[in-house]
Amino acid sequence: MVRTARSVVCKTCLLLLFHSVLVHADVIPGRWEKVEAQAPGTGLTVIMKSGDRFDCTFEEVQMDTLVVETGAGERRVPKVDIQRLETSEPVRDPAKDGTLKGAAIGAIAGGVFFGIVGGGIRGPRDGAGRAIARALVIGAVGAGIGAGGGAALGFAVDYWHKAPEVLYVAQ
How far from 140 is each of 116, 126, 145, 146, CA to CA, in Å? Predict the structure, then answer.
């Protein structure tokens, strides 16, 4: 049994390693798909072939131009003049995502734990109402613990992944 568990852990670690390599793949030079997939309002840093750079907000990608919003208003930048595009703000909030996911997982784990372990813990006067109340309390405690763990993990992810995401690189 120990050998089987060790095998499962090793295979899971290898799978996670390969998955992380695929997730962090580089952008294909000259391709605009990652830029087109951005939501309007995403913060961008545009680096021009001339060496100039400016921060803006993504609006849309047209046939020959990138439409962005700068502090001075809308700007249409020809695609041929762009050397590189990067995000200038986090695309998502890992701390918030971690907190919500951790709370959900913790609540489910607390409910399952009560169903497995707490289902047999009943006194002679306990009715269905007390059993439901216990399940809710244990689920709430699990949600709190999960939210704390998820927030900590989210802050760690946010701390280690501060680098901007590259969306486009000229050929």
Answer: 17, 20, 9, 10
